[in-house]
Amino acid sequence: MTVSDPTAKPAESADPESAVETARRQLERAATHLDVDAGIVERLRHPTSVYRVTVPLERDDGSREMYTGYRAHHDSGRGPYKGGLRYHPDVSEEECIGLSMWMTWKCAVMDIPFGGGKGGVVVDPKELSADERERLTRRFAEELRPVIGPMRDIPAPDMGTDPQTMAWFMDAYSMQEGETTPGVVTGKPPVIGGSYGREEAPGRSVGIVTREAMDYYDWDREETTVAVQGFGSVGANAARYLDDLGASVVAVSDVDGGIYDPDGLDTNDVEDHDETPGMVSGYDAPETLTNDELLELDVDVLIPAAIGNVLTAENARDVSADIIVEGANGPTTSSADEIFEERGIHVIPDIIANAGGVTVSYFEWLQDINRRKWRLERVNEELETEMLRAWNAVRKEYEARDVTWRDATYIVALERVADVHETRGLWP
Ligand code: NAD
């Protein structure tokens, strides 16, 4: 395992808005509103450590291939590092650092006793057989074993990984440690210590936060129109939650394109990405549209829930929604954010909107450590309580400081993290 220099400047990227750059800008902006020690802000611009590992894999044909894996640890002042593992060809050190910073803020906004981590392997999982994915995951778990653990760093699924990946990861770690350790990862299948409601939680929290925003602006739910980009785990669960609430979900999309019905789609009838890939664009709807057209639709609420950096300086002036609720991580670049602020479009940021995922991961970790399973009703009740607590803390800052929703959310998060650093002091 190699430990990269965590203070090194990130490699130049073709995208001027890499995750780490966006994350740093957001941190610096929030800091201007708070009286936080400059040394603490500087510390939080950098990760604690970044680990780079080589993961050798024996392919099914007997050949050997090497893959690169990363795990970034941003901050553990509030508790063990927490964050997903991505299997994707674009995984990079700087992406992991940026995403690990967002995890620190996400856990802090939700007041969960975790810090921020993120990792992944540079691989296209679709090019591997199930057996190869299992071998890759087991070896990756072994390479990371010295720096993870239920009280140290708790990975979870992300793009390209799923509950089965977490099951292999947990099994590999447990076999080497000599004891069954379900708390080393979250997002596992319920049969081995996963939590009921975990899969639906990020989409559900997007729905809850959208509901609160609609109520805050006194909108009639039945009159509210919604467009959702990305009808996967987050997007489909958010769309169905809002549809069930009475809102009119007029457009949804997947990677191949979108569908549109001005009278509202029956979102329970449209199969999501996981159920049947390609079903969204193949669905019999009155109209089809491209992903770019969906982002510019004249709707009340736009929920980008697919990938990062889809709202940019190029299309921000053409967005017609009144509120954007970020389902995906980092869908809005900083320059688009400035345009939205200038145009009076409210953006409810990812670090609160999709935080239901990490919140139910925390519930899962509690269940694993206590060896006591919760019923789905309890999970959803406690998620509702935690989301409202976070929303109310953010709303208070929004009203008191007359800032954007994103700034208000970062202010809540940074204040909590900085407070911990201030109180614990600097070692040695
Ligand atoms: P998913 O794979 O279940 O679904 C992604 C959806 O987006 C699919 O419908 C896919 O077809 C579509 N898509 C992919 N590329 C696209 C493109 N270029 N244009 C339009 N659509 C595209 O993924 P998910 O778990 O729903 O995650 C979506 C986003 O939410 C990611 O940014 C992820 O990091 C974030 N997120 C996920 C979770 C979680 O626990 N699932 C939690 C928090 C945040």
UniProtKB/TrEMBL annotation:
Domain of life: Archaea
Residue positions of the active site: K118
Cell wall biogenesis/degradation among keywords: no
Keyword Oxidoreductase: yes
SUPFAM superfamilies documented for this protein: Aminoacid dehydrogenase-like, N-terminal domain (SSF53223), NAD(P)-binding Rossmann-fold domains (SSF51735)
GO biological process, one term: L-glutamate catabolic process
PROSITE patterns per UniProt: GLFV_DEHYDROGENASE (PS00074)
Domain spans labelled Glutamate/phenylalanine/leucine/valine/L-tryptophan dehydrogenase C-terminal: 195-425
Gene Ontology MF terms in the entry: glutamate dehydrogenase (NAD+) activity
Keywords, ordered alphabetically: Oxidoreductase
Chain intervals for the UniProt region annotation (Disordered): 1-23
InterPro entries: Aminoacid_DH-like_N_sf, Glu/Leu/Phe/Val/Trp_DH, Glu/Leu/Phe/Val/Trp_DH_C, Glu/Leu/Phe/Val/Trp_DH_dimer, Glu/Leu/Phe/Val_DH_AS, Glu_DH, GluDhGdhB, NAD(P)-bd_dom_sf
Site residues by UniProt (Important for catalysis): D158
Family: Belongs to the Glu/Leu/Phe/Val dehydrogenases family.
Subunit architecture: Homohexamer.
Record protein name field: Glutamate dehydrogenase
Organism per entry: Natronorubrum texcoconense
